[in-house]
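Render Phosphoenolpyruvate carboxykinase [GTP] in 3D.
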Amino acid sequence: MPSTGQEPNHPKLLAWLDEVVELCRPDAIHYCDGSPEEAEELVEKLIAAGTIVRLSEEAKPGSIYARTDPDDVARVEDQTFICSEDERNAGPTNNWMDPAQMKRIMTELYDGCMVGRTMYVMPFCMGHLDADDPKFGVEVSDSAYVALSMRIMTRMGAETLAAMEASGADFVPCLHSVGMPLSDGQSDVAWPCNETKYIVHFPDERTIWSYGSGYGGNSLLGKKCYALRIASVMARDEGWLAEHMLILKLTSPEGRSFHIAAAFPSACGKTNLAMLEPTIPGWKVETLGDDIAWLRFGEDGRLYATNPETGFFGVAPGTSYATNPNAMRAIEAGNSIFTNVGLTPEGDIWWEGMTKEKPETLSDWKGRTWHGATGPEGGRPEEKAAHPNSRFCTPIEQCPILADEYHDPQGVPLDAIIFGGRRENTVPLVTQSRDWRHGVFMGATCSSESTAAAKGAVGVLRRDPMAMLPFIGYHVADYVQHWIDLGKEADADKLPKIFYVNWFRRDEDGRFMWPGFGENSRVLKWIAQRIDGQVDAEETPIGLLPTADGLDVDSLGISEEDLRGVVGYREQEWRDEVPRIGRWFDSFGWRLPREMVDELLQLETALGRE
Ligand code: GTP
Ligand code: SPV
Ligand code: MN
């Protein structure tokens, strides 16, 4: 077998690679070192294959542009499986199949799946290499696009391999194939993939098998598959938490700093909050992470958060100098991969919401000529230039407001945890929980309208516990219990305070009542003041709400009516919510934590009857 790069010296890895080669039968192997020279070779290869083009060096230095197959644009939750040995460890929020049966199905799919292709071997580490317990993985993939993306999103390459070899450390084997072998003489397509897709986790073995898709969450296996689904199982067993959270550092005008982690479902505002530019004078936000946080108790009894990733894989549409200037600055610095956005004649990119004016003409995410005024040639005028789930993939170090603590393997001690979702009604702008258990109830009952980040209908309301619905690697009831138990074991005074937010309330005309984005700093300020006991709150059945003058709305220009609509809570909406929460909890089965039943009863009683 022809090979390039340095063959690893790690017995378990070599044994596994032998198995994969025998099964998948690639034409060649490349052992990735993660170097810039290697990245350049991969870029050349992808250009030759027609998968990507280079963007203009002036506009976006060192950056590339990719279009996927129009059917391979988002996570496929229907085809995502948790194959635990015992079905009871999967639970109602996961698809489950017997691992032996799944392996039979997938072994057949993998048989010869890399014929005609190069297999890339990518040793990676989620989190710092010098963490107390570094979490290694090795992804094998037949996609150079995946290799380029993994290099941005994780610590991938020679240094990680050397650390694995030196310590003989174990790793999570992550097998990925686009599922499109090339027989002799068969020409490739620009975006190889397969109609049949499987994103599969074997939590008992800590192994990941992915087939048929090249899209981020389905193929960059360090991300959702490892750092959330498999890591959540490790975290359950080892007494920590793997969460779908951003991490930020907030500093007040007086120079007091707060560390905050926030869990919002996919495409519900994590990247935007993580990089927020406050509109209120004197306040400062710095970024630590925008998608995944690992939370562990430190020796001082406080809960510390680290970001296991090294890049952003952010939603492109809606990102602009008005909404998220720091994301714009990060991507302007170059070295990025843009997928399924619009491509301008100047070799730059564009998406809906980037600028007020639409460009006259560009090439849309499907490769059609597209006009700002009339939409795509041969398409409907309302069709967008960029797919709603188009993404930028950018090194986190390019973020101009990256906090220094990002480099600390210990992470930061959390002062607050925020849960949130996209709800047009019912959930107020901000609510503080009475205590940890009530905060876990807020997280466990969180709900959100579905977005384009996953295949399927958009705007459908669903429960999304801790924004982890598609990412919990075991039974949701055990997951919620784990949250409760960690709080019980901890010193209550040292636990982060828990809040619940909603930026997405709408009026009768469907208009967002809260301006959001930079103005969300007003909510962060209230949270900081609550932590320091500087502002009162109103006790209500659903938790602690800002008093009439509690929230700083100085020069915000919001109407009294909108403010009341967004900050207040309507009792009747919550009376209607109670049975919905009840039905959600019913789905947990007999393992539903007793504490959650108590919280629901308490809410129901406090609301009383009309
Ligand atoms: P994933 O990467 O999918 O996990 O998403 P995310 O949570 O990081 O979402 P992101 O910050 O990229 O936001 C997704 C969408 O929500 C974008 O279209 C934003 O413009 C929009 N959005 C973010 N914050 C706000 C806000 O405060 N108000 C409103 N109305 N929209 C927002
Ligand atoms: C999400 O869907 O929550 C994302 C994008 O952050 S992906 O990595 O594709 O899952
Ligand atoms: Mn995400």
